[in-house]
Amino acid sequence: MTAYWAILSARFRMLLQYRAAALAGLFCQVIFGLIAIMVYEAFYASTERRPPMTFSQLVGYVWLGQAMLGMLPWRPDGEVQGIIRSGAVAYELLRPMDLYSLWYSRAVALRVAPTLLRAAPMFLLAMFGLPLLGLGEWALTAPASWAAAGAWIVAMAAALLLSCAVTMLINISLIPSAGSDGVSIVLMAAVTFFSGMVIPLPLFPDWLRPLLEATPFAGLMDTPFRLYTGHYPPSATMELIVRQLLWTLALILLGRWLLACSMRKLVIQGG
Amino acid sequence: MALIVVENLVKTFKVAQRQPGLWGAVRGLVRRQHRSVRALGGISFAIEPGELVGYIGPNGAGKSTTVKILSGILVPTSGSCTVGGRVPWKERIAHVQRLGVVFGQRTQLWWDLPVIESFDLLAAIYRVPRADYLQIRDEMIDLLDLGPLLDTPVRQLSLGQRMRCDLAAALLHRPEVLFLDEPTIGLDAVSKLAVRQFVKTLSRDRGVTVILTTHDMDDIEALCSRVMVIGQGRILSDGSLEALRRSVTSERRLIVDLVNEGDGVSDPDALVVEHTGRRVELSFDPQLISPAELIARVTAKHAIRDLFVENPPIEKIIAQLYGRLESSSQP
Question: pLDDT above 70 covers what percent of chain B?
Answer without folding.
Answer: 97
